[in-house]
Amino acid sequence: MSRSYEDLEAEAASVSVAGWDFSWLDGRATEQRPSWGYQRRMGERMARASAALDIQTGGGEVLAGVSTLPRLIVATESWPPNVAKATRLLHPRGVVVVADADEPPLPFADDAFDLVVSRHPVTTWWREIARVLQPGGTYFSQQVGPASVFELVEYFLGPLPEEIHRRRHPDDARAEAEAAGLQVVDLRLERLRTEFRDIGAVIYFLRKVIWMVPGFTVEQYRPQLRALHERILRDGPFLAHTTRFLIEARKPVSSA
Fold this sequence. Notes:
Layout: H1 5-14, E1 29-31, H2 38-48, E2 51-54, H3 61-64, E3 72-77, H4 80-90, E4 96-99, E5 113-119, H5 126-132, E6 133-144, H6 150-157, H7 162-165, H8 170-179, E7 183-196, H9 199-208, H10 218-235, E8 238-250
Parallel strand pairs: 2-3, 2-5, 3-4, 5-6
Antiparallel strand pairs: 1-7, 6-8, 7-8
């Protein structure tokens, strides 16, 4: 027997959305993973690094899953609940967690790190990354690509202009990295199948990923949520497509 809209809404509206762990969605939503395996490849680079920085670490979950960390490692995060969660999770691994506003400048000296990583940064401050990287150092990042999950976004907001669909394009990331003096050595984009199997999954996702539907509240969008609940019951899971791109860039050893 299908659960009522009221039951699903109450559950999803009350659960904590702190951190960057999406395990609450297990069995309720699925997202195809990129083929490159970001955490594994990031871990390989961490094992070779001597000083590393993880920007916008969230709750620290991805970094905590790396088996070998460098001698010196720092993580930054801006959202206070995530700062607290990352501190609890990462301090036992020897990671210093720094509360940072995610705006320039980064609170570190020039040439401080030989590896800088970031998974799903909201904004990439390329000149700051280039500044804190040592010559020969690497920036390695998985990022949200253009028009990610826009089927769901446009269900609530209506059709968005083409220039918004074009935002976060990997070609723009390449141009910005190169303008900051970095050499892009790897860049790839994938479009991945995502399914929401009940309305609770939709509510939880929009509460957690707050920039998808800015200012989202259940109260404001309850008519659309109820209609989508009925649609899922009638037609099956709501299908959307996530976009992700991987970018790796290096700071030249010499500008000469």
